[in-house]
Amino acid sequence: MTRPASDDLQVLDEALVRLRRLWTASRAHVVDDLGRRVEMSSVLVVEACARAESALAEVTVGDVAAFLDVEASTASRMVERATAAGLVLRTPSRVDGRRAALRLTDSGRGLRARATAARLGWLGAVVAQWPPEDVHVLASVLTRFADAVAATPPPAGAEQGPPRRPH
């Protein structure tokens, strides 16, 4: 297989930077049951818990960290905020007494439904004038790209910013 031209990679990089807008803009549409704006980190925790609940006996902070590709300490703080917002419930683990199991509350499930509807509504508006075949191709190619990104670690030394300090 041949490598893409560097111009194509540049265009892809620019498009990906611009696409970050989807998550940033969707924040304005996500509110809790009382109409209060919810932090994006809590929306991500809710999504991680919802997806893990369908595959695992119980969801842990470690599962959230793995789904979000963040350190366990970062996931723990994110889960704490989602718990304080009433979106996630921490209960003692039935598997390991040293851990907590996470469950979505009714409010968390409602938030997920609203966040998903907002994202899908916006995506639908974005591609409303596209032929359905083009939307299908985009979905297929973007899924393949996301899978490849997940399976390919960044090259050594590719970190941006100062190096992380050991914990």
Automatic annotation (TrEMBL):
InterPro entries, alphabetized: HTH_MarR-typ (IPR000835), MarR/SlyA-like (IPR039422), WH-like_DNA-bd_sf (IPR036388), WH_DNA-bd_sf (IPR036390)
Residue ranges constituting the HTH marR-type domain according to the UniProt record: 5-147
User: Listed GO molecular functions?
Assistant: DNA-binding transcription factor activity
Q: Which domain of life is it from?
A: Bacteria
Mind telling me which Pfam families this protein's record contains?
A: MarR_2
SUPFAM superfamilies for this protein? Winged helix' DNA-binding domain
> What's this protein's name?
MarR family protein
Q: Which GO terms describe its biological process?
A: response to stress
Q: What is the lineage of its organism?
A: Bacteria, Bacillati, Actinomycetota, Actinomycetes, Geodermatophilales
